[in-house]
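Appendix B, example 12.
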Amino acid sequence: MSNEHDMSRMWTQEFWDARYAESDGIWSRNPNPRLVQHASDLATGEALDVGCGEGTDAIWLAARGWNVTGLDLSQVALDRAAARAADLSPAVSGRLTWLRADLLTGDPLPTDFDLVSVQFMHVPRELFDGLYRRLAATVRPGGSLLVVGHHPDDLASGARHHDVPDILFPPEQVTAVLDPAEWDVKLADALVRTMERDGEQVSVRDTVVHAARRA
């Protein structure tokens, strides 16, 4: 099997279903820190958590009063997220909806969200612009788009290694797809964060873009 074929499998439901099925949990049960940092002060409403995985971010938002649609490619991940939500109070679990969709093959998206959160979702470069335009279009006027990803500087510094390096992206790759007539970019930066890896503290850079759609 060629390496190119191996990499193409990374964006299929079969790949992610198998990865999630390997263990009881592959991500931390703590919400993504950039989401907490930049969404805590937003007025609550309708939120879309893109690439929600096992549901940690979606549950955090729901606990804060958001009505959340958690969207993911993997049904295994969504089933796990739903099972975790079922253990919560009805006041939180009742605010959560789970949706399986393959964004790279053009599955339709719900629209009119006050917050669209895209945390560390990396896709092939040739599909990036079209996908992020579609995601931006789901934000209602007055709403926010929050995109967080691994910055390419981590490759040069050795903080991160990746078999498909061009899926890491800088903030300007996101802002380039946002029409300046429709969007106010509140933040577009590469922010340093310290994380623990193999028992050591490592500094990494996160691409963070927070944009508000003009009302």
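The first helix runs from residue 3 to 8. Residues 1-5 have pLDDT under 50 and may be disordered.
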